[in-house]
Amino acid sequence: MESTKIHKTAVIHPGANLGSNVEIGPYSVIGSHVTVGENVRIGSHCVFDGRTTIGNNCQFFTGAVIGSAPQDKKYAGEDDVYLVLGENNIVREYVTVNTGTPEGGRKTTVGSNNLFMAYSHIAHDCVIGNYCVMANAGTLAGHVTLEDNAVVGGLSAVHQFVRLGRLSIIGGCSKVVQDIPPFSMCDGHPAKVYDVNLVGLKRNKMSTTTVKALKHAFKILFHSGLSKTHAIAKIEQEVESCPEVEHLIFFAKTTKRGLCS
User: Fold this and answer.
1) 83: part of which helix (H) or strand (E)?
2) Would you place residue 78 in the very low, low, confident or very high pLDDT band (cuts 50, 70, 90)?
3) Among 19, 28, 154, 233, whose Cα sits 20 to 30 Å from the Cα of 255?
């Protein structure tokens, strides 16, 4: 715990495990089963509870509540549920993240290099990838999956068990009740697919060939009037194969809640 700085008003349980060079601000509380990695910055009035593990180099701003019990009526206060956060995450003011539940695999998982803006919420048993962004007051219900580089607009709500595909983006104030296809730009109440997320693709240095193939696949999947099964078959026959198109096909085939229209 060399170089660790803990404010005199912070409450740290003796069972907590703190890495080196950690800073903990005024009136923050760290529970007995919490593990905090190296170089983590925790602001004032934060609460870390449950069986929670925090990776290196994360930042938590005022009022964040991390590892609190699931907001699930079936939850009976079991001890063996977990929350795991990766490295380099930025968690802004009053963000809340719950642990998992026995019915959902017992663990909420958050990857690395994510940004969670003020008042956003991650419910029990969610799986968050890497480089995701949740804007202010974006909320995820239980069992939601965000693939890498997904973006959730401010004041949006995502229904339980919904998946948000890689490099997808949801506009602010959207109501998301079905799976958001990877590489898509969606918006609305309920959310609908509007186009390929060209800005996201360019920022991630997708080749012109890949972008062209995805646009062709989207045209078939969402604008041909074909059923999903027939549209996928047509994509497999007509669209030049690449990892991104293959991922889109796999995502569409494995949806359980259906794809946004």
Assistant:
1) strand 82-85
2) confident
3) 154
1 pLDDT band (50/70/90 cuts)?
Answer: very low
- The model's pLDDT over 88-147, given as tens digits with 9 standing for 90+, comes to 999 999 999 999 999 999 999 999 999 999 999 999 999 999 999 999 999 999 999 999
Non-local (6+) Cβ contacts of 73 within 8 A are none
Strand 65-68 to strand 47-48: parallel, antiparallel, or no bridges (unpaired)?
Answer: parallel
Is the pLDDT reported for residue 3 higher than 80? Answer: no
CB 140 within 8 A of CB 121: yes
**Which residues on adjacent β-strands are paired with residue 6?**
24
What dotted CATH number matches 202-253? Answer: 1.20.1180.10
Number of neighbouring beta carbons within 10 Å of residue 240: 11
Strands 145-146 and 163-164: parallel
Which residues, in sequence order, are CB contacts of 253 under 8 Å at separation 6+? 232
Residue 2 has pLDDT above 70, yes or no: no
- As a whole number of angstroms, the distance between CA 150 and CA 58 comes to 19
Rounded Cα–Cα distance for residues 190 and 196 (Å): 18
Say whether 202-253 and 5-143 share the same fold: no
The predicted model scores a pTM of: 0.96
Q: CA gyration radius for the chain?
A: 20
Q: What is the pLDDT of residue 197?
A: 97
The topology under which CATH files domain 5-143 is UDP N-Acetylglucosamine Acyltransferase; domain 1 (2.160.10)
Give residue limits of the domains in the chain.
5-143, 202-253
Distance between CA 141 and CA 214 in Å, rounded?
Answer: 29
